[in-house]
Amino acid sequence: MSNMPSAIFLDRDGVINKEVNYLSDPNEFKLLDGTIEALRIFQKKGYLLIVITNQSGLARGYFSVETLNKIHDKMRRLLKEKGIRLDDIIYCPHHPDFTGECECRKPKPGMILEAQESFNINIGSSYMVGDKLSDIEAGQLAGCKTVLLLTGHGLRERKKINQIKPDFIFNSLLDFAKSLRI
Asked: The whole model's pTM is what?
């Protein structure tokens, strides 16, 4: 069991990059301050880095899979230039109003469980990091530790905490990374 990898599951918008509603232009993709340093810390500690992102803009027709792939290619390239490799990017293209229900859209844990199966991840020693309570709920349902960041939508979402309580709250991804003692 102990040789199973642990992962940092990362929401994308508002966690890795600046929140832009329905990001549909690769030129608007900008990493948040501290992202590179934070991901470098996680990588040095041996965590898999897996992006878990709802992309309902696809279902809404705001952008195409081709455009989403260009955005993700830019993200991978910016990170690779700094020596950081994402292990996977998993996205949910659905929205219940347009495509009906699915098992992957956060707050459901489908994307995390898919990654767990693909990489044989030790879910109990992994973290789901997000700026929305839907990220936190997905992480809890999957069985991992949860981190709410106060970037992106985080400040607003923190005011809504009631039944769904994150294990940790940090101002930024870098603050969380620096706190890890593993």
From this structure: 0.96
The residue annotated as part of the active site, out of 11, 73, 97, 167, is 11
- Verify whether residue 175 is a known catalytic residue: no
CATH of the domain at 110: 3.40.50.1000
Domain that includes residue 47, residue range: 7-179
Query: Two tokens at 131?
Result: 């700026």
Give the pLDDT confidence of 111-144 residue by residue, as tens digits: 999 999 999 999 999 999 999 999 999 999 999 9
Residue among 13, 25, 73, 175 flagged as catalytic: 13
| pLDDT single digits (tens) 145-162 | 999 999 999 999 999 999
- C-alpha pair distances (Å), 181 with each of 21, 75, 135, 165, 178: 34, 27, 23, 22, 8
Annotation says 131 is catalytic: no
